[in-house]
């Protein structure tokens, strides 16, 4: 590990935070944009963007952020609003999956498998981006925010299943991973409750160490099976919501670790991976893919929110946040490149569109459609949990 390079990364994170405060933008958004600029000005070699330690810290950041999003889901809210989460989430997956695939094939001339891969990559919703934005505003504590996060999970579950069914062979390793994950999800709640009750609460931070152990172990099992380490994180967070989600002290400590150190590497690295020359050469294709995702998301999600009687501003804000993408979009794009489904030029356009979808809808949502009544409600909830 190069400490000088690490200092550059944290310097970029501080710069992004100052820009975020000054311009009143989401820090996740500014970190991505600063990452794009840093990749272009400093170069990937100086930043060591592809170094194993940078990739590891970025990966841990995405895993912990996804876990925290799941841990803050209120089971009672989910039981009351499962129809909304399911309906909005499925609409958020199918509309861009079909729309982008069709446009990539007919307008860009991509062959069938590449077009389906594009549909998968741009069907995603970024739980990491949505959760980071909601955490800044406090919306993660409100029923409104929790339903959006649940819908994001349903959306991304559709993406994962589509990628597996269309392109990834089902093997014995896949079955082993599925069984191992199911067993872990079944036994974790009761085991964690007893473990934390007996040994938790000390300065030795057993809770954080145990949670990291579980996430790393299941992540290793996922990678061994040919999947991705981030996939089990949201489910683990959901099943531990009763234990972890109500421990505000533990949540604060995990957020400090995640947002203070790890997610800057994740968002900055995502931005630095954009190749501006490749983007300039195929700008029309990039713009078409980005618009295809955003328009198809609007055509799918907005009517679904109205069907559940969302007010206009709430419906627009939900639709725009559901239009974001990052983790699973880049994962799907990289899978297509490494397996020969798409070429390098198509990969660059897809990744650029994925990363732009993390920036553009977020900015529009917070600039023009911020639901102030939910933000005020979140502030009231924040006051209630203060000692």
Specify the CATH architecture. Up-down Bundle
Summing up helix and strand content along with how strands pair, one would put the structural category as mainly alpha
Using only C-alpha atoms, the radius of gyration works out to 20 Å
Q: Considering DSSP H and I runs of 4 or more, what fraction of the residues is helical? A: over 70%
CATH class annotation:
Mainly Alpha
The number of helical runs is 19
Q: How many discrete domains?
A: 1
Identify low-pLDDT runs.
Answer: none
Shape: globular
Mean pLDDT across residues: 88
CATH topology: Na+/H+ antiporter like fold
Residues in β-strands, percent? under 5%
Measured between the Cα atoms of the first and last residue, the distance is 40 Å
Elements, N to C (H/E)? HHHHHHHHHHHHHHHHHHH
Largest sheet: none
Number of strands: 0
GO molecular function: antiporter activity
Transmembrane segments: 52-73, 85-108, 114-135, 147-168, 174-192, 204-223, 266-295, 315-335, 347-365
Protein name: Potassium transporter Kef
GO biological process, one term: proton transmembrane transport
Topology:
Blueprint: H1 3-23, H2 27-41, H3 44-47, H4 52-71, H5 75-106, H6 112-121, H7 127-137, H8 143-166, H9 172-199, H10 206-224, H11 231-239, H12 241-244, H13 248-272, H14 276-281, H15 283-307, H16 312-322, H17 327-338, H18 344-368, H19 372-384
């Amino acid at each position: 590990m190069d400490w000088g390079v690490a200092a550059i990364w944290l310097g970029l994170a501080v710069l992004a935070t100052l820009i975020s405060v000054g311009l009143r933008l989401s820090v996740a958004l500014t970190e991505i944009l600063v990452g794009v600029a840093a990749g272009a000005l400093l170069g990937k070699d100086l930043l060591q963007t592809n170094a194993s330690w940078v990739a590891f810290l970025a990966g841990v950041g995405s895993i912990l952020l996804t876990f925290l999003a799941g841990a803050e889901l209120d089971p009672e809210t989910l039981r009351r609003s499962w129809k909304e989460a399911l309906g909005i989430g499925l609409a958020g997956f199918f509309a861009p999956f079909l729309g982008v695939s069709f446009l990539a094939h007919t307008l860009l001339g991509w062959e069938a498998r590449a077009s389906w891969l594009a549909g998968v990559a741009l069907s995603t919703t970024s739980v990491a981006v949505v959760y980071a934005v909601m955490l800044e505003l406090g919306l993660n504590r409100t029923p409104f925010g929790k339903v959006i996060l649940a819908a994001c999970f349903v959306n991304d579950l559709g993406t994962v299943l589509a990628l597996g069914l269309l392109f990834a062979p089902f093997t014995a390793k896949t079955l082993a991973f599925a069984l191992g994950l199911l067993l872990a999800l079944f036994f974790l709640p009761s085991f964690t409750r007893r473990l934390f009750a007996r040994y938790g609460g000390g300065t030795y931070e057993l809770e954080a160490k145990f949670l990291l152990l579980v996430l790393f172990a299941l992540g290793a099992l996922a990678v061994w099976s040919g999947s991705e380490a981030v996939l089990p994180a949201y489910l683990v967070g959901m099943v531990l919501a009763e234990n972890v989600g109500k421990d505000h002290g533990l949540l604060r400590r995990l957020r400090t670790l995640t947002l203070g150190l790890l997610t800057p590497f994740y968002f900055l690295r995502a931005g630095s991976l954009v190749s501006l020359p490749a983007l300039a050469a195929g700008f029309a294709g990039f713009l078409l893919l980005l618009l295809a995702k955003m328009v198809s998301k609007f055509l799918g999600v907005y009517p679904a929110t109205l069907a559940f009687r969302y007010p206009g501003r709430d419906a627009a804000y939900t639709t725009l946040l559901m239009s974001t993408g990052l983790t699973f979009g880049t994962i799907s794009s990289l899978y297509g490149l490494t397996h020969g489904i798409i070429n390098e030029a198509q990969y660059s356009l897809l990744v650029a569109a994925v990363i732009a979808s993390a920036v553009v809808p977020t900015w529009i949502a917070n600039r023009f459609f911020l639901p102030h009544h939910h933000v005020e409600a979140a502030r009231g909830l924040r006051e209630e949990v203060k000692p």
